[in-house]
Design goal:
Radius of gyration: 27 Å
CATH topology of the largest domain: Alpha-Beta Plaits
Mean pLDDT: 88
Helix content: 25-40%
CATH superfamily of the largest domain: Protein of unknown function (DUF541), domain 2
Distance between the termini: 10 Å
Number of domains: 2
Number of helices: 3
Strand content: 35-45%
Shape: elongated
Number of strands: 8
CATH architecture of the largest domain: 2-Layer Sandwich
Low-confidence stretches: 181-189
Largest sheet: 4 strands, antiparallel
CATH class of the largest domain: Alpha Beta
């Protein structure tokens, strides 16, 4: 049956879908925090540790282009005594982002960074090297969900549905990764359980369908 879409009644439905996939990459944010009475001393200490960590990561197989500075800051440190603030020194904080393409390396990387002077992990964020494929799958399933809902509505209303949408709009996209909580590195990180879990990709569409009475 041919539809005169200019005069046919329409229904609007929303389709949703979620796809999960296992991560195959991770980004570790490593912190090097140094304190000294003089700012130049704090900077030199931090620079020395940072360079040592980078060199150790390079030797372990992490290329330089997978290591980058996320944040670098210098702030004064005060001690408060009897209502007065006394400058006691300076803190230099350097955060490095390390891209890990083999998840089994995470424990080794944590151990290396600890042994070479890192004292904070800001977070570990897991991701996939094929995010677009996972999202496109969710989008496809969301579209099928919208068509399925339209069919059910047509069945309930006892009308004939044109299953090709007059209009289809991508409404939202959401990727949920699972970062770890901030933690202080201990002397031994091999015992720290790091579970990648799964990544969730969600999609939603709005579809407009024409229908007619039998």
């Amino acid at each position: 049956m041919r539809y005169d879409e200019s005069s046919s009644p329409t229904m609007i439905v929303e389709g949703k879908a979620t796809v999960t996939t296992a991560p195959d990459q991770a980004v570790i944010t490593i912190g090097i925090v140094s304190e000294a009475k003089q700012v130049i001393d704090a900077q030199q200490q931090n620079s020395s540790v940072s360079n040592q960590i980078i060199q150790a990561l390079n030797k372990s197989g992490i290329p330089s282009n997978d290591i980058k500075t996320k944040q670098y800051s210098i702030r004064p440190v005060y001690q408060y005594t009897e209502g007065k603030s006394i400058l006691t020194g300076y803190e230099v904080r350097h955060l490095l982002e390390v891209q890990v393409n083999q998840l089994q390396q995470i424990g080794t990387i944590l151990t290396i960074t600890t042994e070479n002077g890192a004292n904070i992990i800001e977070d570990i964020t897991f991701k996939t090297s094929t995010p677009h494929a996972a999202y496109r799958k969710a989008l496809q399933l969301a579209t099928l969900d919208a068509i399925g809902k339209a069919k059910e509505l047509a069945k309930t209303l006892h009308v004939q549905l044109n299953q090709t949408p007059m209009k289809l709009v991508e409404r939202s996209a959401h990727i949920q990764s699972r970062p770890t909580e901030k933690m202080v590195l201990s002397a031994s990180t091999e015992s720290v359980p790091i579970e990648p879990g799964e990544l969730t990709f969600s999609a939603a569409v709005e579809a407009v369908f024409a229908y007619t009475n039998f």
